[in-house]
Amino acid sequence: MTSALVSTAAPSSSGLEEKGKRWCIIAQLTVSLERLVIGARRWAQVIGALRRQGIDTFKRGCSNIPRTQSTSAPTMVLEMAVIAFRSLPRLAALRRSLMIVPLLAGLCTLAAQGTADDGKPMGSTTLVARGDSVQSLFSLPSLDGPAHELARLRGRVVLVHFFATWCEPCRAEMASLRQLQSRLDGRPFAIVPISVAEADGAVRRFFADDPLPFAILLDRDRSLARAWNIHTLPSTVVLDRALKSRLIAEGDVDWGRPDVMNMLADLLMEVPG
């Protein structure tokens, strides 16, 4: 029995392009944020060095002056004023950088929340039915080295998941996919996560401390994403046992939702045995 929440309306191409543009903006903002943080740290190091240098200069200068109450205080004030004056431009630049950092962080957060699914809560994307369309088969390298062929998974329900490590909703959805794999362990079901247009090292570092229970494939040049008409990250295509596309989600999905589990159960019932 098919869930009543399945929709037969395909998303418009203009909407997909708009979502793709939004994700590009998020990526650019993230890179800018990282550069500002690095710049702020460097300014802090420079100011710390200037401060230490100023203190040493003050000590050396004062060591040659007789220590009387009338000369030590004015000298200290003068030295401190000189150090402060020299540091003013750097301190102003640092303050500007620190003010921009939280602003960009807020923009990134708002953009990620707004593009999850047109402002809907994270994980609320609905699986949309497709008319048994045939997707091109592929063979992609995995993060561990050997290539994986989609044809070898014929006879199972296959969840092909396109993601990127810089995509915030993608990160949250990975935990949901991990739980789904555990929930359907032993069933004729496979999850195929595909990193889109990322360097191998970035993907490897991201999963180094928390490896996934399934192989991660690499679409380095977006050739597969283009062939499958994927314009939004994350996106997921669910294939039936004949490797025909039956469901698609453009956005992050909570794979533990009852309606989602019902749709997957319908496909699993089509697998003999």
Concise summary:
With 273 residues, the chain is of the alpha/beta class.
Task: Give the end-to-end Cα distance, rounded to a whole number of Å.
Answer: 18 Å
CATH architecture of the largest domain: 3-Layer(aba) Sandwich
What is the overall shape? globular
> What's the main sheet like?
6 strands, mixed
Tell me the name of the CATH class of the largest domain: Alpha Beta
Pattern of helices and strands: HHEEEEHEHEHEEH
Strand segment tally: 8
Helicity, in percent?
40-55%
- Tell me the CATH superfamily of the largest domain: Glutaredoxin
Mean pLDDT over the full residue set:
74
The DSSP helix count reads 6
Radius of gyration: 28 Å
* Number of self-contained structural domains: 2
Taking pLDDT < 50 over at least 5 consecutive residues as the criterion, the unreliable ranges are 1-14, 61-85, 97-117
Portion in strands:
15-25%
Classification by helices and strands: alpha/beta
The side-by-side strand order for the widest beta sheet comes to 1-8-7-4-5-6
CATH topology of the largest domain: Glutaredoxin
